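Appendix B. Worked example

We walk through a single record from start to finish. Start with the input: the chain for Response regulator, Massilia suwonensis, length 271.
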Amino acid sequence: MHAQKTPTAVRLLGFSPCATAHLATLLASAPRSGPLYACLHEDSLQEPDIVLADGTSPAALAWLDGMRCPPPALVIGGMARASYTQLSPPFEPDELYACMVKLLAERRRALMLLSARGEPLLAERRRRPRLGPDAGCPSERQPPRDGKVLIVDKGGAFRDHLAGLVGPSRLAIAWTDSAPMAVRLCDETPVSLAMINTAAPGIDPYGLSRDIKAQQGAEKTAVVLLVGRTFNYDSTLAHGAGVRGLLDKPVGDRSLVAMLQRLASLPEMPA
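Next comes the structure step. The output line below is what the pipeline stores for this chain.
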């Protein structure tokens, strides 16, 4: 069934709110016989499988050109660019779906080639374009704080999975189901990354992030929310509480490793 397929993560770059909503609707209405697509929230830390970019947006094109390991990209509108698949508006939905299927096949081939060569899957270090020192955009490419990863969840299963994924000798990972204990751990020991499951009972994720970030020396501690479909993520509240971003559950292993490479002290892992 369509709903049981693993969704293809799509990041939309540079489009107007109206165009973004239109593209999201088209992707959600993709034929049931083909892939399932999920558009990433602007705050999502997940590595996209495919990028759709507005070809008339300099910021979107700068982001694509600046990526060190870009996923397949579809540029909609603007001048033709030899390095990307192009789609000129107006277009029919079937034209969009055909381009997406082609890009997915390209993505699979690229991942298979990396794996065969034993090369690492490199995480993108930033989510917004760097347009130069005078562009007024703060750089996200800052070295992560040294320290452990803290999981705040109702049980330790996710912590165990993460430890098994990266190896116990590569990164220290702690777990708690208590907000006061989480704050205490961040106060007593260096924590590079705190991951809060928004479904954990009795936990206010925004309040906990605010308390963690209030600790002395916690400026570089990244707080990430693990968000389920029923949680109403509020960007304004999240940004005000110091949340770095979100990951949609269930979280794929590739996205977890990429996030740990970006926000914690995990070295690059082989494919």
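Two observations about the output. The chain is about 35% helix and 20% strand. The longest helix spans residues 93-117.
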